[in-house]
Amino acid sequence: MKYLKLCFVLLLLAWVSVAEAQTTKVRGKVVDAETGEPMPLVSIVFVGTTIGVTTDFDGNYDIETREEVSEIMASFVSYERQTVAVKKGAFNTIDFKLVPIVTHLDEVKVKPGENPAHAILRNISKNKKKNNPAEKESYSYTTYTKMELDIANMKPEFKNKKLQKNFGFIFQYMDTSAITGKAYLPVMISEASADYYYRRSPKLSREIVKASRISGIEEDYSLAQFTGHLHVNVNLYDNYINIFEVNFASPLSEHGLMYYKYFLVDSVQKEGRKIYKIRFHPKGKSTPVFDGEVNIDSTTWALESARLRMAKGLNVNWIRDLAIENTNELINDSTWFLKQDKILADFTVQMKDSSKLISFMGHRQIDYSNVRINEDIPTEIQKLDNDVIINKDVLQSDENYWQSVRPYELSEKEQNIYNMVDSIKNVPLYKNIYDIIQTALLGYYNTKYIGFGPYYKLVSFNKLEGCRFQLGVKTTSDFSKHVRLSGYGAYSTKDGEFKGGGTVEYIFNNQPTSKLTFSGKHDVLQLGASENAFTTGNILSSIFSRGNNEKLTLINSFDVHYEKEWWQGFSNSFALEYRQMFPTKYVDFVRPNGEVVDQIHTTQFRLGTRLSRNEIVVRQTFDKVSMGSDFPIVGIDLVAGLKDILNGDYEYYRLELSVKHDFNIAPLGYSDIMLSGGKIFNKVPYPLLKLHEGNATYFYDPYAFSCMNFYEFASDLWGAVFWEHHFKGFFLSKIPLMKRLKWREVATVKALWGTLSDKNNGSLPNTDAIFRFPEGMSSVSKPYIEAGVGIENIFRFIRVDAIWRLTHRGDRSGQDVDNFAINFSLHLNF
């Protein structure tokens, strides 16, 4: 499956990019020749160029260039300069031992004064609006983006193992990183060429991907979206830089003095302009911070270039090293704008530098050209209906095209990565490993045309069905790019029933989405479950069940569903849905006069609307997954019950609205919030009311009430809020012993209010409702509130929450109520 191949690199591909195998790379340390002490702030430059860096506070440095160089020099005030030859186009390790110059001086009186770097920072702040690209009225440019995924920390002993027989040929592609000093093996490379247009007001953002290719992944135009540059925006003028959902304090932040110490270490002349070099060092590590240097133009107070590296010891998962390089150039003799961006990230399970575990490195480099500022955006670009447009005509393109758009030539080693990855795919061992990982990630074991699974539904158990056995199949994209067939069959031992269902999907287009689906099933369903709950038959719902909270209903259903995405951020869904519901011994249908009803029929038309802005969407052949947005995502659902159509028993109308928003509150972490509410018009049986979301398991569900049972509350007018705040270790990281654990705090509040009109309130003594309520179910006119605190990032992926029920406490008639609950969940967060 093409998309699975992307899954191996998705976390990297959306964020990080490429190392130059053709560069001259130098890494080393500078110490005092007499004392052996590390020397910070030493100037390191390639002789004959303006390419230079300063050593960090441990005396370490790394530097690289594609330019022709032959020597590197170290210099520091009151020390003799040293120059050493370098091997061009290769990795070099060069350590310097600087010799102090002995000078006899008369007595010098030093008076305290302001740090000169602070005055420069104030000027940067005063001129931010003028220099920040995001504050420009409009701009456009062309980008060439190169990304690479590498395997790092591979030991020579690997060559002596059985894998050598299958993969030994790959070692000729080994290289070494100047930043980490580790050898790495490139296993994926991608390139993309795009035009980008931006307007501040009214807001407009358009990226036209002209060409894209990824080694080892066959042509699939939907993959091109991952090779654009929009997935991370490293803007040092922002107060915080969000990378991998981690908010790093920017060295140019308005609050930079809270997080960093600044040192003016040098001023140099570049192309006739005076550039200040400022080194910064973190004051503490309770907030994610960098260590590095910025170069500031003395005339405009704009950022000329920067080198940043993630400080060691931060409460950040999976990333052992993160380095950013930013280079700007002068446009129209007055405006500094992006010229090149680089990011390197070293991903590992074990964070220690001494770890012997294999890790992964991702690199990204974006080169900007043809920059145009404050020019009108062409009308045809403004009329485009997606933020990312992919030109299918030149999607993959030939080598001649790539040579014409690259700002530099690829080395032979880089060019051969494409061939190497294709060769790996043909190794039988690779195919076996690929099948195992594919099954683990997606749940299905795929042959060429059919997948079998999901494995987590093969066996499960519950009170109604006893032991349940299920097997499903679905076709793959190799079977058809337009039609997907899926189905499953199940048998349960306690009720002795066979159940099953099937789906036929036809995709007209996947960007923008146009898709028709027919589905039907005969199965049990938990009414009132949240959108995030385990689906029927999931073994995890059985293992972590709370035991007495399952109230399943047997249902026959048939749906016709059409989804139409008009443009990015605006889509509709149209559905005709038929339901035949049967009572069970846990959920009965009884009229007020005591008559037992053996089934009810509903037919309804549903119109759904979804609104989002600047949302990142992963598009597969048949499916799409939201990766979030910086803006609220709004859903509107309108349902009309159709009486006497397909045996529909009831006429009713239902309006429901939801708003989801995730937002950062740096440096205090981030919040996830969902607001929802709705109204049901006309008289309906209780299964058609809003049955509020209970939780039948010990697994935490962000959109369910942890201490609430199923069928405890129902409404025909309601509003609810689900709020979580993740502090990212803001408090615990300040406690010495807790800091080592890298645990993180989380707080939750969930609240619900709802009412029932008398005609729908089956809990009243002399009710006029269609059915009596199940024992213990009532309205929630008195607000239901629960709150909790939790610890996440236990062993980096476990979260435990303690939740208290603040209202409606104590046992209720027909309901065993939990006033306190412990939930756990699994999360893989950076």
Automatic annotation (TrEMBL):
Keyword terms, alphabetized: Signal
Record carries keyword Iron: no
Domain of life according to the entry: Bacteria
InterPro entries, A to Z: CarboxyPept-like_regulatory, DUF5686
Chain segments annotated as transmembrane: none
Signal peptide: 1-21
Protein name, as recorded: Carboxypeptidase-like regulatory domain-containing protein
